[in-house]
Structure formats: structure tokens, C-alpha cells
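Good morning N.,

You mentioned wanting to compare the apo and holo forms, so I went ahead and generated the holo version with guanosine-5'-monophosphate. This is what I fed in:
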Amino acid sequence: MSHDPNCIFCKIVAGQIPAKKAYEDQDLLAFHDIHPWAPVHVLIIPKLHIATHAELGPEHAALAGKMMLLGPQLMRELGVTGGFRTVINTGPDGGQEVYHLHMHVMGGPRPWLKG
Ligand code: 5GP
Ligand code: ZN
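and this is what came out, ligand included:
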């Protein structure tokens, strides 16, 4: 399934739910987390509905590479100079709440709410 009508992040991709966007191209969207853990907290998602990191396959190698490269670029653009933290939660034991693959990228001066 490339789009799940019940998925909240697919709804953000489709413009049905508003989000504060930080980056968009044909494959990826990045937006600010609604409940940030850090002064800067963005989520990078593929526009394609992929439920979890565990569902990524070799056919997604280029997409996964783009996601990995976007984090540092966004942190630079958002003025994060002291380093940042990248997290992907996978499945129930990984603490995943939204089942559309997303990479948290968090930065800014500490203390942070979590971690
Ligand atoms: P997870 O626990 O699945 O890794 O993280 C899901 C993240 O999505 C949480 O940090 C949560 O605050 C964020 N989130 C959930 N719903 C929305 C939403 O509608 N808009 C935005 N911007 N973030 C959301
Ligand atoms: Zn989705």
C-alpha cells in the first residue's frame, strides 16, 4: 500500500492535516514534531506509506539514503550547531506510536524533555 487513508502521516503528506513543514521533495517530507522533546525536533518521513523501519527492503535503499542525508542538512538549515540526536522507533517494544516510518532528528541546547 503506498498510501493508507487511516494513517495520520499519510494525511499530512496529502495535506489533509496541517503540519509545520521543514522540507519537501517528491520522495520525502520533513515537519516539526507536534510535541517536541528538544528545542528543534523534526520528523523525516517517506511520502510512501512504509509502516516501520523493519519493512524497509533493498528496493528502498535510495530512499533510506536520502532520509539519512536530510537530517544533517536540516539541522544546519535550522541553526543547530551543537550536535543532534537521530532516533527511529520500531514496533511496540521500540516504542513506535505512529505506524508510518519516521526518523526523529532532535537538536538545540539542553536540557531536553526526553533523552
Ligand atoms: P513514535 O513514537 O511513533 O516514534 O513518534 C511519533 C511522533 O509523532 C511523536 O513524537 C508525536 O509527537 C508525533 N506526532 C503524532 N501525531 C502528530 C501530528 O499530527 N503532527 C505532528 N507534527 N507530529 C505528530
Ligand atoms: Zn502512512
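The two ends are 33 Å apart (CA to CA).

Happy to go through it together on a call whenever suits you.

Best,
F.
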